[in-house]
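Long-time lurker. I teach an intro course on protein structure, and each term I like to show students one example going from raw sequence to a predicted 3D structure in token notation. This year I'd like something fresh instead of my usual example. Would anyone be willing to generate the tokens for the chain below so I can use it in lecture? Attribution to the forum is fine with me.
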Amino acid sequence: MRSRFHPALVFAVIWAAIFVLHAPLLQLPYFWDEAGYYVPAARDLLLTGSLIPHTTVSNAHPPLVLAWMALWWKCAGFAPLVTRSSMLVIAAFSLLGFYRLAERVANTEVAIAATASTALYPVFFAQSSLAQVDLAAAGMTFWALAAYLENRTVATAAWFSLAVLAKETAVVAVAAIAGWELIGVVARRGRRAEWWRNSEPAAVKLRRLWPLTVPFLVLCLWYAFHHRRTGYVFGNPEFFRYNVASTLNPLRFVLALAVRLWQAFGYMHLWVLTLGMLLATLAPPLRDEGVERPGMETAARTIFLAIVSAYVIAMALIGGAELARYMLPAVPLVIVIAVSTLERRLRHWPVAIAVVAVAFVAAWFWNPPYGFSLEDNLAYRDFVVLHQQAERFLEARYPMAHVLTAWPASDELTRPWLGFTTRPMQVVRIEDFSLEQVLSSAEFREHFETALVFSTKYEPPHPLLDHWPAWNRLKARFFGFHRDLPPQVAAQILGGRIVFANQSKGQWAAVIEMERGEILNARLRRDGLENPEPRSPAKVHRNTPRESRWRR
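-- Reply from a regular --
Happy to contribute to a lecture. Here you go:
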């Protein structure tokens, strides 16, 4: 099918639109996993030319996106503005691929509406300027699907290879399509091809499988290279344990499956679109000049649902953190199916799409009544701004102090090139600000003069499921849930006073100054001059890497 608009024009329009929408975000310092892995790894590639990072522990993600960022830094300089602009180019290219795919399986009107809806979907919107890899893998997958449906075998192999080089989990889509093709072969041989709606001979289907083997080979070559350089195949042992070994529990799988289904069909106001689609199916197809309005190609819809199902199951089985960005290759496929259904059955379907767009934009700013990852809407901006303010206060008032804090603030304070401080500060790291961790820290006041405490997880003011203790226990057991102490309580336990505090939409950050008497008494106890007590220095970590950063 020939596109109504030239691809260069479509790309220019998409890029200009998303650049304007993201303009206020482009100079933000790096957030969470950006600061913890992707930016340091890409910076190592820029400075040393090594595909294996050395300032952070490798988690075996392929290097395509890291190389892209390093190239931009080489040409335009190392700065958040450059990084985020480079990611917006990837986002625009991904949306162009999705537009071509939607136009191929439906029509231009559906393609425009589905692409706009995807660009506005909160998770896709937030990820568009973040230096992470899932959106790039999704974009390459869309281009590969378009090539696959057009029977362009070489292009299919190339695009899927780029997808797995962006992130290894793109192989899930490849496996889903291969499985769909094999089922088609079995169905035809069993003379049940009529329900499969695909009349291609089995030999043709088998020939279409060879491009799907190439991405597996490319991924194996990357892992072989990684193993040769690091001794690990799937990343360091902690990364593998958290994301694979510790997730293979039947109860956890059921809980994670429910989360993934919600992320695929309802998360961040996506339910508005899927509910509209379900209601629209109750109406008969519209007729234009006596002819029934065509819908999406049946084979394409089947493939899309196979990919969505594969992602739901695979991401429920693996991945220690149930992050919505892992589902980015699947959710836009749900969106195009829903938009196509609305276009076929509702006379005023553009009005329904406008309602969906308003709901998506509202979800940029509105936080749901349950815990969620801050990177799924503009809550990540609130987090970064709070940390900027607190860390600038720390640097200005206590430039030589030792600071008790947790990751990612520990990296933000010790790595000025992340954009939070102008020079490194001395950090004493703990895992989080739970009661256990803060009580443990209070025994070692002699090691720090200030503390930077902050909300490590979003906690809504009126949680939807908080009155179910069993649910909280399950979250703590399988998903790393904990409660951060309020800054007033942390200050009381640590024996200090709050000298800076700020909050925004359920998040907070505070700086605590230790009372001089408390520090003196702690040092006396340390030197055995006053009430000596047994101590365990292992509880205090000075500027050491945070193992749990590899969970993502």
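Some talking points for your students: Residues 41 and 154 are 31 Å apart (CA to CA). The chain has two domains: 7-376, 379-551.
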